[in-house]
Design a protein that fits this description.
The chain has 3 domains: 100 residues, Rossmann fold (3-Layer(aba) Sandwich); 69 residues, ATP-grasp fold, A domain (Dna Ligase, domain 1), CATH 3.30.1490.20; 236 residues, D-amino Acid Aminotransferase, Chain A, domain 1, CATH 3.30.470. Helices cover 32% and strands 26% of the residues. The protein is built from 14 helices and 21 strands. Helix 4 runs antiparallel to helix 5. The chain is globular and about 60 Å long. The structure holds adenosine-5'-diphosphate.
């Protein structure tokens, strides 16, 4: 087992990993930027090293500084969290070159799934249904026959995309060339790769994803699904597990396909296969090769600590949980708490002058902020996650409404009230919402 782990991240996820390490009796090293001197992940770690100035490019993405820190502090492994370098194939490779274990899949799997065109191809070969798409956009005739086959609307997406960037919905044929060109420009700028592809745009699907867990001996299990359809501009806002519309036989069928596919490529660690779900059919979109922001809802309904399992698997331990041991029990919901203006959604950094977080049975807060903390302007605006768990969905919603009312964050703007509105809306209460739900708040 590892003796010391470097956590190459910040905020709530750095703390989440730190907690798992402490329970496993593993020492922790965190990195931080000059803007994060007083952050919780710095205060709570056994050691913390400043790796650069505030911009992420100079600190949390500064590979040479992170590797130097890892070498100097003599760690056995690096946990990348999510975002930042978590899906950077080169980072994973460099770490391994330094005889340090990357807590995640092998770099070849990051590369394989990092290209969404390639990922769809592999999944399709493994009998997983994918969203109908066209990859070769150089020939106008091919585009025309694709439209004839699947109809409009379409969506143009970046092969290396993430975070909802490089996507354009196309409703009319005459927009196609322009949309492809602008998606290419955005994709080149954001991902240094201008490969884009077309997909049929599904009108009212849910976003449902399957969580898998694998060791390095080809033991793979599925931990059920998360419904992440409450999104704004393709960014998730609320997630829940289980989904309100998935029948057990559908869950088992898609889980089997996912575990088989993951086993066939020799994938290890945690991973998520993202699908659109419409008219009782699944359509694979992409696979995320890292821990997800929304992993807590899965932890609550399965009672499995995903971060600990991820660390155990990376250290070479065999998975001791069998598929038949996985029981989805109760219901969990997560609200992402963002520091942002509730109307314009513009980030709202600044000092938290008053802070009180909710508690009680079935309430979990994964956050790294505190009273007096200054939310820096340099990073993502998500400052925490509020998760509730109960036996039934109705009780879970009641708990979430109660917890949101109790949550006090003063000094900055947050989306707490927006969550309250959503939690009171009939569509959400009935569980019938799809990915378009948030457009009514635009
Ligand atoms: P990213 O990696 O940038 O997050 P995804 O491929 O995961 O991109 O898609 C993000 C979201 O965009 C999905 O959850 C869904 O809401 C929407 N989306 C993507 N592809 C389609 C599609 N073919 N039809 C309808 N919505 C889509």
């Amino acid at each position: 087992m590892f003796k010391k782990i470097l956590i190459a991240n910040r905020g709530e996820i750095a703390l989440r990993i730190l907690r798992a390490c402490r329970e496993l009796n593993i020492k922790t090293v965190t990195i931080h930027s000059e803007a994060d001197e007083s952050a919780m992940h710095v205060k709570m770690a056994d050691e913390s090293i400043c790796v650069g100035p505030p911009p992420a490019q100079s600190s949390y993405l500064n590979i040479p500084a992170i590797i130097t820190t890892a070498t100097l502090t003599n760690v056995d492994a690096i946990h990348p969290g999510y975002g930042f370098l978590s899906e950077n194939q080169r980072f994973a490779e460099i770490i391994e070159e330094h005889q340090i274990k990357f807590i995640g899949p092998q770099s070849q799997h990051i590369k394989m799934m990092g290209n969404k065109i390639e990922a769809k191809k592999i999944m399709s070969e493994n009998n997983i249904p994918t969203v109908p798409g066209l990859n070769d956009l150089s020939d106008k005739n091919k585009i025309d026959s694709f439209i004839e086959k699947v109809g409009l609307p379409l969506i143009v997406k970046a092969a290396s995309g993430g975070g909802g960037k490089g996507m354009r919905v196309i409703s009319e044929k005459k927009e196609i060339i322009k949309s492809i060109e602008s998606a290419k420009i955005e994709s080149k700028k954001s991902f240094n790769d201008d490969t884009v592809y077309l997909e049929k745009y599904l009108i009212n699907p849910k976003h449902i994803e399957i969580q898998i867990l694998a060791d390095s001996y080809k033991n793979v299990i599925s931990l059920g699904e998360r419904d992440c359809s409450i999104q704004r501009k393709h960014q998730k806002l609320i997630e829940e597990s289980p989904s309100t519309i998935l029948l057990e036989k559908n869950r088992n069928a898609i889980s089997n396909l996912c575990t088989n596919a993951v086993r066939s490529i020799g994938y290890e660690g945690v991973g998520t296969l993202e699908f659109l779900f419409q008219d009782n059919k699944f359509y694979f979109m992409e696979m995320n090769t890292r821990l997800q922001v929304e992993h807590p809802v899965t932890e609550m309904v399965t009672d499995i600590d995903l971060v600990k399992q991820q660390i155990l698997s990376a250290s070479g331990e065999k998975l001791t949980i069998k598929q038949e041991d996985v029981k989805i029990k109760g219901h969990a919901i997560e609200c992402r708490i963002n520091a942002e203006d509730p109307i314009s959604f513009i980030p709202s950094p600044g000092k938290i002058t008053q802070y009180h977080q909710p508690g009680g049975l079935g309430v979990r807060v994964d956050s790294a902020v505190y009273q007096g903390y200054i939310v820096p302007s340099h990073y993502d605006s998500m400052i925490g996650k509020l998760i509730t768990y109960a036996d039934t969905r109705t009780e879970c919603l009641a708990k979430m409404r109660r917890a949101l009312e109790e949550y006090v964050i003063m000094g900055i703007n947050t989306n707490l009230q927006l969550h309250q509105k959503i939690l009171k809306s009939d569509e959400f209460i009935e569980g019938k919402y799809d990915i378009n739900y948030m457009t009514k708040f635009d």
